[in-house]
Amino acid sequence: LSRRCHHRSVSMLDVPFLPFCAFLGALGLLCVAMVGTWCQHWRGGFSLDGSSRTFNWHPVLMVTGLVVLYGAAALVYRIPNTWSGPKLPWKVLHGSLALGAFILTVLGLAAVFCFHNSQGTPNMYSLHSWMGLATVLLFSCQWVAGFGAFLLPWAPTWLRALYKPIHVFFGSTILLLSVASCASGINEKLFFSL
Q1: Are 107 and 60 in contact, with CB atoms under 8 Å apart?
Q2: 148: helix, strand or coil
Q3: Rounded CA gap, 76 and 83, in Å?
Q4: Is residue 11 part of a domain?
Q5: pTM (predicted TM-score)
Q6: DSSP-based three-state secondary structure for 45
Q7: How much helix, strand and coil, in percent to the nearest 5, is found in the chain?
Q8: Is 14 within a domain?
Q9: Which PANTHER family does the entry link to (predicted)?
């Protein structure tokens, strides 16, 4: 009985890789479009003048960086087992997407700190703030450690093998923290708006 249940659960997860990636990419674009539309039409648009329109860059950049691009980086490295080519292009794409996510995240943090400072609002006053900052700090450490262990040629094989499960664990944890930070941030903004 357990063999049959195990076989059934494995076959249920057998999804074609490229269509699944395309589906998740479309969901990511839809997510960014919805947050952008929310900020453009219901929150007053975008600006760099320190007003609430400066703040509007924060949710768009953070969702694009920490959820969509970081999620794409995680997915890209889950190449199908049937791939027989070199892994280096996938590693470079994985690291590049994560670097792009990091850049957008830093810009998103700069936008919210600029807004808070121009309005006289204290920084780091909520659970969302602290959870988001912890996520960004973990993400920064993850990127630097991953770059050093997997993309630089000096790292020995034993070190890569030792660090890989840690890298995978923290990658998944950071992605979950990113989604939780986004949900808490949107709820916080709605709470203050309503």
Answers
A1: no
A2: helix
A3: 12
A4: no
A5: 0.85
A6: coil
A7: 80, 0, 20
A8: no
A9: CYTOCHROME B561-RELATED (PTHR10106), LYSOSOMAL MEMBRANE ASCORBATE-DEPENDENT FERRIREDUCTASE CYB561A3 (PTHR10106:SF38)
pLDDT tens digits, one per residue of 126-184: 999 999 999 999 999 999 999 999 888 888 999 999 999 999 999 999 999 999 999 99
Measured between alpha carbons, how far is 38 from 181 in angstroms, rounded to an integer? 18
Max CA distance (Å), the chain: 65
CATH number, domain with residue 151 = 1.20.120.1770
For residue 108, count other CB atoms closer than 10 A to its CB.
Answer: 22
Residue 16 lies in a domain: no
Q: Are 67 and 35 in contact (CB under 8 A)?
A: no
| 145: its two tokens | 């450690």
Does residue 13 form part of some domain? no
Domain count, the chain: 1
Q: Give the residue from 91, 77, 86, 65 showing the smallest Cα distance to 21.
A: 77
Question: What are the pLDDT digits (tens) for 116-125?
Answer: 999 998 999 9
Range of the domain at 163: 24-192
C-alpha dihedral (185, 186, 188, 192), degrees to nearest 10: 140
Spatial distance between the Cα atoms of 112 and 57, rounded to a whole number of angstroms: 8
Whether 32 has a pLDDT exceeding 90, the answer reads yes
CB 142 within 8 A of CB 38: no
d(CA 17, CA 76): 10
Q: Which helix (H) or strand (E) holds 29?
A: helix 17-37
